[in-house]
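Q: Got a minute? One more chain.
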Amino acid sequence: MSIRFMLSIPLLLVSTWFGGTVFAASTQGTCPGVSMNATQYSSSARTTSGQLFRPEDLTAAHRTLPFGTRVKVTNPRTGVSTIVTINDRGPFTRGRDIDLSQGAARAIGLTSVGKVCTEIL
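A: Always. Here it is, folded:
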């Protein structure tokens, strides 16, 4: 019996036990939740929700999520994550799903447009 075959049997059993889902040991580079295209943005003095826009706060803009929704945002390249609060509407650029404030983008190491993993809390 080869080693590859001997290692695949326990993995198959674990996969069957958990309903066909194989859990990876490392989440770097993958998104277990929803993947979104993100960018950092700056806004006018006030956000759509009426709050003052503070670039260093951990906030974000999304087209449909209700204001006050907390979202865990993770950079899949580094595995670094932060929790942001939706307080604005946008992005209004095709291909973008979420706009992060400068503080939130800096916290996860996003310097321009990139893919992030999101989880609504």
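A: Confidence is low (pLDDT under 50) at residues 1-27.
Q: Perfect, thanks.
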